[in-house]
Design a protein that fits this description.
alpha/beta; 6-stranded parallel sheet; 10 helices; 49% helix
């Protein structure tokens, strides 16, 4: 092959003959041990390390530079979505493949928006998981059928879907500068539920943060004026 016929290869691509390096992130030791054993027994993979939460994961990614991070989402001491967002902000080379038991909109959409390359559920067959890690290492998106269906439904959701009464309550408190913890206390719900309501109302308003949600709500009359 001449120089003119050479094919450009992405700088972060994993060489075909190189083992794909993996970082396992999960708060359950048994799950981490199981995943480590599974990947270390399969050809073409090497496990560089383990983390029990998102904060540890970010630090280990900087230290070990894995090709793929297998990331759980709900972990004490630092969740997966925040870790994914931080890795994205830092421009980390590692691709993040979410591996979790949760497939609700409040889990899948924030993870994908934060920068996850793929999203699988923990009941995925062994070979499907191996294939997903290989695909993620190549920068290809991998979604479990259940998650793909949810994302398609979210995209096809009718525009300007009205907010529920509870979502309007949460939004009104956000507009007053109330924190998630204070909202949870005032409405007698958990902070996790507050975050779920925020995720849903963000999607309905077509925004990505609190400030934009409040601004859009005033523009549409949801807060103040004809909306009250």
């Amino acid at each position: 092959m001449t120089d003119d016929e050479s094919v450009a290869v992405p700088e972060d691509a994993v060489p075909e003959d190189a083992a794909i390096s993996v970082l396992v992130v999960d708060d359950h030791p048994v799950v981490r041990d199981g995943l480590r054993g599974m990947f270390e027994s399969a050809p073409g993979f090497t496990v560089l390390g383990e983390a029990s939460n998102g904060v540890e994961a970010v630090g280990l990614v900087a230290e070990l530079d894995p090709d793929v991070v297998l990331m759980d989402l709900r972990m004490p001491g630092g969740g997966g979505v925040d870790a994914i967002a931080e890795l994205t902000r830092r421009g980390a080379r590692a691709k993040v493949l979410v591996l979790t038991t949760y497939d609700t909109d409040s889990d899948t959409i924030p993870a994908i928006e934060a920068g996850a390359t793929g999203y699988l559920l923990k009941d995925a067959p062994r070979e499907e998981l191996f294939a997903a890690v290989r695909a993620a290492a190549e920068g290809r998106t991998v979604l479990s059928p259940a998650v793909a269906s949810r994302l398609v439904s979210a995209v096809r959701a009718p525009a300007n879907e009205p907010l529920s009464p509870r979502e309007r309550e949460v939004l009104a408190l956000v507009a007053k500068g109330t924190s998630n913890r204070e909202i949870a206390r005032e409405l007698f719900i958990s902070e996790a539920t507050v975050k779920t309501h925020l995720t849903h109302l963000y999607a309905k308003l077509g925004v990505n943060d609190r400030a934009a949600a409040v601004a859009t709500a005033y523009e549409r009359g949801i807060l103040g004026g004809r909306g009250e």
